[in-house]
Amino acid sequence: MVGTVLYPKANQKACKSFKDVEISFRTQPGDMPIFVLADRGGKEDVEKLSLIKVAAIFEDSVKTGASFLDLHGKLMDKIEWLPLSLGKLSNVIEVNFSENGIMALPTTIGNLKPLPTNL
Q1: CA 109 to CA 111: how far, in whole Å?
Q2: Per-residue model confidence as pLDDT tens digits over 75-99
Q3: Which residue in 83, 72, 98, 94 sits closest to 2, CA to CA?
Q4: For residue 77, what are the contacts with CB-CB under 8 A and spacing of at least 6?
Q5: Could you count the other beta carbons within 10 Å of the beta carbon of residue 116?
Q6: Could you give the maximum distance between any two Cα atoms of the chain, in Å?
Q7: Distance of alpha carbon 63 from its chain centroid, rounded?
Q8: Which helix H or strand E contains 56, and what residues bound it?
């Protein structure tokens, strides 16, 4: 995969929306994708995400045009499904939902481009 890798100077742990710190990673049609590296620290430092926070991440990702979504081991243990808004992530070409208790994906996942990676 080819693209630009960025490590933001502000919001390095990606705990806030990048929109809140006035950073945009939106690309134009035909541009290379942008991959944002976030320093999430060790497992003990990672805040487990509620379903509402996951939905907010999906909405922020739609607004910023993110092409990569990494929720590896970040969901609360009781979350077994993902919000329908997953289908809005039209720019996402890579996702990582591994090491979570997800039992089912919403049917809206069919709205995404073909994904070449882990689900």
Answers
A1: 5
A2: 998 889 999 998 888 888 888 888 8
A3: 94
A4: 48, 101
A5: 9
A6: 39
A7: 12
A8: helix 51-64
Q: In angstroms, rounded to a whole number, what is the distance separating the alpha carbons of residues 79 and 82?
A: 8
Q: Of 4-13, 47-56, 59-68, 102-111, give the lowest mean pLDDT range.
A: 4-13
Return d(Cα 111, Cα 66) in angstroms, integer: 16
- In the structure encoding, which two tokens stand for residue 110, read together? 């069919």
Q: Are 77 and 46 in contact (CB under 8 A)?
A: no
CA–CA separation, 90 and 111 (whole Å): 7
Tokens 């808004």 -> residue: 85
Distance CA 9, CA 72 (A): 23
The token duo for 80 is 């077994």
**Buried-exposed string 34-64: b where 16+ CB fall within 10 A, e elsewhere:** bbbeeebeeeeeeeebeeeebbebbebbeeb
